[in-house]
Automatic annotation (TrEMBL):
Domain PH: 66-158
Record bears the keyword Zinc-finger: no
Spans through the membrane: none
Domain of life: Eukaryota
PROSITE patterns, per the entry: PH_DOMAIN
Name of the protein this chain belongs to: 9689_t:CDS:1
Molecular function per GO: GTPase activator activity; metal ion binding
Species: Acaulospora morrowiae
InterPro entries: ACAP1/2/3-like, PH-like_dom_sf, PH_domain, PH_KIFIA_KIFIB
Keywords: Metal-binding, Zinc
């Protein structure tokens, strides 16, 4: 079904908000020290509440040797018009993202434990790109583009 003009405008607004940068790298708190025992100091101060935006949960996970699929996909980078080619490796339950097929340094990892993979023609029309699909996690959404329809269907089915 066709989207109305209002629906397209709303979808564009959501994508613009989704791509916005919130904060700077200087605001990311990296601390490897264990928490202090006893009551927390200055918990209710505005400075303390403002400085801690998000707290990450990190776990060391061993990679499995079983690769379900690997290949290049395109993903948007900062602006609507610039998409970068990245090497993706599917080792269930994770999708690893690398700069190239050398797989030397991970650019990112997506936990696929509870995701929804979706293809909608309307998304392709709005982005003016073919073979586009999305992965929705509890915390984020990832838009990816395959080089062909067959390749897109293969990624979606895995």
């Amino acid at each position: 079904s066709e989207c109305s003009s209002n629906e397209k405008d709303l979808a564009k607004k959501y994508i613009t908000l989704w791509k916005m940068k919130w904060g700077t790298t200087k605001e990311i708190v990296i601390n490897q020290e264990p928490p202090l025992s006893g009551p927390l100091q200055d918990v209710d101060t505005c400075d303390n509440m403002h400085s801690t935006k998000l707290v990450a949960q990190v776990r060391m996970m061993a990679k499995t040797d079983t690769i379900t699929k690997k290949g290049y996909l395109y993903t948007p980078e900062n602006t609507d018009d610039y998409w970068v080619k990245r090497w993706f490796v599917l080792r269930r339950p994770y999708l690893f993202i690398y700069e190239s097929q050398k797989e030397t340094e991970e650019q990112g990892v997506i936990n696929l434990a509870s995701v929804r993979v979706d293809y909608k023609k309307d998304l392709e029309d709005m982005l003016q790109r073919q073979h586009v699909f999305a992965i929705y996690t509890n915390n984020n959404a990832y838009i990816l583009q395959a080089i062909s329809r067959q390749e897109m269907q293969d990624w979606i089915s895995k």
